[in-house]
Amino acid sequence: MTPETKRTIILIDDNAILRTIFGHMLQGFTEYEIDFHSFKNALDALDFLDNNDISQSLMPPILFVDINMPFMTGWELMDVLENRTDFIKRTKIFIVSSSTSKNDQEQLANYPFISGFILKPFGKESIYEILKKID
């Protein structure tokens, strides 16, 4: 596959087991090549984003972001990313959470650039469906 067909996928979640399982799930996805990165907190992910221009690739990057994390919540990360207009225009962002809180569902409305909400636990089929639908 050419670099033009490679897609960057980033998972930001403080659960080490989920990060490992998610990476293994992506290995079975064959629609396009994946450059996978995972981070245990949003600060590390922001550092990566600041030092790597992933938004310039032909295929838009995809972020999967947990809500409840140490140092910076997923919502606080959304507040930071909201100011990076070029980045959020090209990036598909999905919130992943085990929270069924009405407040979290309502919070989604504050960030119209979020592409969806994925309830944990989830299987690879649901992730594959999302990845297949993204242009």
UniProtKB/TrEMBL annotation:
<dbReference type="InterPro" id="IPR011006">
    <property type="entry name" value="CheY-like_superfamily"/>
</dbReference>
<keyword id="KW-0597">Phosphoprotein</keyword>
<dbReference type="InterPro" id="IPR050595">
    <property type="entry name" value="Bact_response_regulator"/>
</dbReference>
<dbReference type="GO" id="GO:0000160">
    <property type="term" value="P:phosphorelay signal transduction system"/>
</dbReference>
<protein>
    <submittedName>
        <fullName>Response regulator</fullName>
    </submittedName>
</protein>
<dbReference type="Pfam" id="PF00072">
    <property type="entry name" value="Response_reg"/>
</dbReference>
<dbReference type="InterPro" id="IPR001789">
    <property type="entry name" value="Sig_transdc_resp-reg_receiver"/>
</dbReference>
<feature type="domain" description="Response regulatory">
    <location>
        <begin position="8"/>
        <end position="135"/>
    </location>
</feature>
<feature type="modified residue" description="4-aspartylphosphate">
    <location>
        <position position="66"/>
    </location>
</feature>
